[in-house]
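Bumping with the actual sequence this time:
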Amino acid sequence: MKKLIDFDGMFDEKLAELMQSNAGKYTEKQWEATIPKLYSKFGDTFIPRAGNTPKGYYAEMGDEELCETLARHVEEGVPVSDFLCRELERRGCPDGLVALLASENVELLTLAVNLVGANPKGFSKYFDILEKKDADENVVEAVCEQLKGGADAAKERALALYRKGVRPEEMLEILSRCKERDDAVYEVLIRAFKESGEEMPMRASYLAAYGDARALDTLLETIDREDINFLEYQELRYAIEALGGEYNRVRDFSDDPYFLEVMEQSKPIDINKKSDA
């Protein structure tokens, strides 16, 4: 097993020296534009301590060692360099990386989720995370983003968890991103919309995202109700238009608190108005 090397720490030291020796020559924006190029160049620079370049150091490792190295970096508090992450991405989601999705370490788990991405190899572990009642909410959010990116492959497990009552809103959002038409998915989305209370705007957005025009009749019937508020009206109208429909009836929301709030926030600021102070 190779030793852990803080390549980012080395780069930061070299960068500090470079900035000090060139003090006053470049603006902050110029440095911001240059630093990524310097970092990329550093990746191809031979480092005697490593006996290789940063990129080459990780490229020499096997899949298992590479994944173990990532875990050790986190466990031992050594910064994880971009060179290590990019090499893991280049390997195409090795099994060792998927195994890290079972970690209890939130930092390592977050890194693993971002590296596995929307690869279906990680979906089973993703759903295992979502079924945990004490799962870190930031990890849950990251997992859901990846599942939305591969919603068709995640569909069956998402349907099963929704029917079990596990994170229903997250499951609906994942299902809404399916590209393949499926009556089971449509029926879940339309039923959830019909049964929605305060979640109506969000569940209307799921119908818009799914893109099945069969939902138009239900949406048009709902938007015409007198008891909907301005926030619900806006989301319903967006969903209707997203599905190719239109709603032209003039509505009066002048007494609606959501409408009044929007109007208040959209007022232009009078810079010439004198303060009472």
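The tokens above came from a reply further down the thread. The chain has a mean pLDDT of 93.
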